[in-house]
Write a structure and sequence with these properties.
- The protein has about 190 residues and is α/β, with parallel strands linked by helices.
- It contains 3 helices and 8 strands, in the order ββββαβαββαβ.
- The radius of gyration is 18 Å and the shape is globular.
Length: about 190
Amino acid sequence: DFGGYETSELNFNDEWYAKNIDSDGALVPRLARSRIDTYDITLPDLREWWVDSAMILANNENIDGLFIDKGVDTNSVFYNFKGIPYSDKGKMYDALRNEMDVRHPTKMMVGNTLRNSSTNSSRQQLERFHGAYLENWSVRNSASVLGQSEAEAHAVAIRLMREASSLGKMINFQSQPIRPVGDDTPLLIGS
């Protein structure tokens, strides 16, 4: 979803950066975290470049897999109920997984994919990825009709890890929920 990595420089077209229209009607960069350019994944050429760039890394014999950061979007659905790519990001992930299966069937594809705050916690990504990195697992799902406590968010994250593990997926998780910078209050789970 966003650049700033060394491979981002390889054959990249600056027209592939996502843009917004500001209040004056001018095109301005769409930034992640107010500082990182984002990609316009609606563009088929960008998606092809992204897969090709990832495969350059996967082709290295010293690399045993790929890690896909920002593998989820809150309230986005990547695949329909039959598992067919529904979104541009789903198409991109499917294209990469297909390339990996053909060219590097023994290498892993792990992503920052499972997240309580996403639609259905992005469980559909478990079909495409060999594992998941979980961060922000204390973040409540704002779409929850009943409202969700932080303790319930933790319970969902633990359930996601158990589900993924039962499917033979690798799990990496941030061992402490993220707190705001400067917040030195001791963290008590369920408090």
